[in-house]
C-alpha cells in the first residue's frame, strides 16, 4: 500500500500561498469595484503607471499581465473606450503600438490607491517589520522570475518621449 505524502511542507507552502492570495483578492475587491475597475483593469493601469513614460508596448503589456495578445487587446480596447489609456503608434516600428496611461487613468488610480494601499498595509505589509518585508520581497521576486519571467518585460528599457508618439488611428 502506497502512503501519500500529505504532510509534505511543499503542499503546506502552496496551500498557504493560495489562501493568502484568495484572502487578499477578496479584501481588495470592494475598493476596485467602487472605482469601476476589474482586477485586470487595475493591474493594467498600475503597470502602465509604474513603467517608464507611463507606457508599454502592447506585447510587453501582454507579457507582464500574462494575457494573450488578443486578451490584452480586449482589455486595452475597453480601457481606451473608458478614456483611461490611449494607444499610440511607435515612431520606429509601424507594427508596434504602445498603451499609454491618460490623465483620466491617473485620476482613476488616484481614487482607488488610498483605499487599496490601506488594505495592503492592514492585511499584508503592515504585518511585517521592515527587514522582513525586504526579505519577503526578495523571495517573491526570486519565485516570480521562475514562474513568470516576462512579468517585467519592457520595464527597464528606455522608451521614446511621449511627444514623439502618434495616436493610433482606428
From TrEMBL:
InterPro entries (UniProt xref): HTH_MarR-typ, MarR/SlyA-like, WH-like_DNA-bd_sf, WH_DNA-bd_sf
Gene3D superfamilies linked: Winged helix-like DNA-binding domain superfamily/Winged helix DNA-binding domain
Biological process, per Gene Ontology: response to stress
SUPFAM superfamilies attached to this UniProt entry: Winged helix' DNA-binding domain
PROSITE patterns found in the cross-reference section: HTH_MARR_2
One protein family per Pfam: MarR_2
Molecular function GO labels: DNA-binding transcription factor activity
Domain HTH marR-type: 10-145
PANTHER family for the chain: MARR FAMILY REGULATORY PROTEIN (PTHR33164:SF99), TRANSCRIPTIONAL REGULATOR, MARR FAMILY (PTHR33164)
Full protein name: MarR family transcriptional regulator
Organism name: Nonomuraea cavernae
Amino acid at each position: 500500500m502506497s502512503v501519500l505524502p500529505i504532510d509534505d511542507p511543499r503542499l503546506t507552502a502552496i496551500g498557504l500561498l493560495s489562501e493568502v492570495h484568495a484572502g487578499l483578492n477578496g479584501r481588495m475587491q470592494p475598493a476596485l469595484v467602487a472605482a469601476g475597475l476589474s482586477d485586470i483593469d487595475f493591474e493594467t493601469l498600475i503597470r502602465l503607471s509604474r513603467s517608464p513614460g507611463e507606457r508599454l508596448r502592447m506585447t510587453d503589456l501582454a507579457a507582464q499581465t500574462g494575457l494573450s495578445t488578443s486578451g490584452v487587446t480586449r482589455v486595452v480596447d475597453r480601457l481606451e473606450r473608458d478614456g483611461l489609456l490611449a494607444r499610440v503608434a511607435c515612431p520606429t516600428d509601424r507594427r508596434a503600438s504602445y498603451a499609454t496611461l491618460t490623465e483620466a487613468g491617473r485620476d482613476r488610480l488616484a481614487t482607488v490607491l488610498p483605499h487599496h494601499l490601506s488594505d495592503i498595509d492592514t492585511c499584508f505589509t503592515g504585518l511585517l517589520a521592515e527587514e522582513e518585508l525586504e526579505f519577503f520581497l526578495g523571495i517573491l521576486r526570486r519565485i516570480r522570475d521562475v514562474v513568470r519571467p516576462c512579468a517585467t518585460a519592457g520595464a527597464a528599457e528606455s522608451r521614446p518621449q511621449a511627444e514623439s508618439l502618434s495616436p493610433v488611428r482606428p
